[in-house]
Amino acid sequence: MVTVRSYDNEEFEIEDYIAEQCTTLKNILEDNCASSVIPVQVESETLSKVITYLNVHGDSSFDEDDTKQFDDKFVDEDFPILIEYILAANFLDIKSLLDLCCTKFANMIENKSVEFIRTLFGIENDFTQEEEQNYRQQYAWAFEGVEDD
Q1: Backbone region of residue 54 per phi and psi (left: phi > 0; alpha: psi in -120 to 50; beta: other values)
Q2: Under 8 Å between Cβ of 5 and 36
Q3: Does 149 score more than 80 pLDDT?
Q4: Residues in domain SKP1 component POZ (predicted)?
Q5: What is this structure's pTM?
Q6: 128 with 75, same domain?
């Protein structure tokens, strides 16, 4: 068993095979750098969900269809939660989770308008109206097939 402490100081005990799915934890364990508790820069709520994901993906009793259903439900979240999953997967170096979340994220923003993306990310438009019109004309191909908000 491995004990992992979240950023907000909640401790989780996980099986070794779960920890080994996280390259970051695996490297710490292999290098014998771990004290009794391994601190990670992930909030407890997110870490709990990530551990659930790892349990499902480490459980051989789940077939491919069950895992796919779980994955689809797992990433069926709002933007801020998905970003937390991406950050956790990146920090813990869980390639499968990072790929899953980034694919979902890419699908969320595919064919969306510039305005939608700006709102989603909280980006302020720093172009003048004239500059924006010029860019829209110059790169009209980039705006083809964009959904209405």
Answers
A1: alpha
A2: no
A3: no
A4: 1-57
A5: 0.84
A6: no
